[in-house]
Amino acid sequence: MQSKLSVLQVIPNLNVSGAEQGCIDIANYLTANNYESYILTTSGSKIKDVEANGTKVLLGPVNSKNPFIILKNIFLIIGFIKKYHIKLIHVRSRAPAWSVFFVSKIIDITCISTFHGTYNFRSSLKKFYNSIMLRMDGTIAISNFIRDHIEKNYVLKKGSIKTIERGIDLNFFHPKVISDDDISNAIKNYGLKDGTIKILLPARVTEWKGHFILVEAISKLLHKKDLSIEVLFIGPDQNESLKKKIENFIKVKNLEHVIKFYGPTNKMNLIYSLSDIVISSSTDPEAFGRVSIEAQAMGKIIIASNHGGSQETIIEGKTGYLYSPKDTSDLMEKILYVIENNKYCSNENANLAIEHIKNNYGKDKMCKKTLDFYEKIVRQ
């Protein structure tokens, strides 16, 4: 069967962020459904994986914000469009979006963007720079929070805006794929203790993910009640200077025996499985918040900052709890409530969370909605 549409996704890098995972999910879905799939990127650890599933990865400096490189990329992209007969471009970042915008002024090509974040702005110039994401034939907002942000802060909207919530691989993020032996071995390999309550913060080491917030909350928790807990910081930790500051803060609080960094892993379903409580302590609003839906998909109770996408994905008091952002006392109280009321080991809560994510946030649902949006915009 001949493919119906050739799609080029453009993204600066192809690593482990939510935007990058979404790009990979769409690419794999396209090839599985007989569409021609291409990705233009600069580099990334996931390139070989996506190529193995049939997507052709093209390389170019689309991570650059240099105006001269952005200009050169216009002609690079035009060359790829002509060579591979691209019918639609889906751009996922602002700098390459400027290149794509000018490409669309030179040749006839349908262009779609995904608005992945709030893209903070402190000047009219930065706001203008961000607005390029709304100058396409169509724009995808990854949550109602992001759509509301667009509607509130931007006037210029060329094409249709559609909310398509992110989705996850429900075959990967499901408790049944992890055995008790897998969990026991992982606990041993990570040097964890049996019988402790394990609290997980899955996040890369960056200022706004809230590592300091959780450290302070845990300090307050252990001053209030004697508990046998371990806290796992899991995620990319290349920011050595910030990691060192967090480690020093942990030492100041005398929590070296409780809170530790364990680096990144490609077995996050296993890490969720061995954990009891999952924390999303972001100080800035998450545009969507994959951690919240991944945790629920694994049947784990999630405690998240009460802003951004987590407000949409968590059923308060049933599949998780929301706390006032940056309020370490409120976070401490929520953790204590979950422990004292055995919410972290409730089968009822776990089953409700799993069903909630299954019904609303599966990867295939996201991909199907995205493909339908492609087809709609192309037909216009």
CATH architecture grouping of the largest domain:
3-Layer(aba) Sandwich
> What Rg, in angstroms, do the CA atoms define?
22 Å
Tally of structural domains: 2
Number of strands: 13
- Major sheet, described briefly? 7 strands, parallel
CATH class of the largest domain: Alpha Beta
CATH superfamily of the largest domain: Glycogen Phosphorylase B
The percent range for strand residues is 15-25%
**Outline, from the CA principal axes?**
globular
The chain-level structural class is: alpha/beta
Overall helicity: 40-55%
Straight-line distance between termini: 25 Å
Query: Uncertain segments of ≥5 residues (pLDDT<50)?
Result: none
The succession of helices and strands, N to C, reads EHEHEHEHEHEHEHEHEHEHEHEHEHHH
Placed side by side, the strands forming the largest sheet appear as 3-2-1-4-5-6-7
What does this structure look like?
- With 380 residues, the chain is of the alpha/beta class.
- It has 15 helices and 13 strands.
- The protein folds into two domains: 6-167 and 362-379, Glycogen Phosphorylase B (Rossmann fold, 3-Layer(aba) Sandwich), CATH 3.40.50.2000; 175-360, Glycogen Phosphorylase B (Rossmann fold), CATH 3.40.50.2000.
- The strands form two sheets. A seven-stranded parallel β-sheet has the order 3-2-1-4-5-6-7, with helices on both faces. The chain has a six-stranded parallel β-sheet with strand order 10-9-8-11-12-13, with helices on both faces.
- Strand 2, helix 2 and strand 3 form a beta-alpha-beta unit.
- Helix 3 (67-84) packs across helix 4 (94-106).
- The longest helix is centred in the N-terminal third of the chain and has 18 residues, at 67-84.
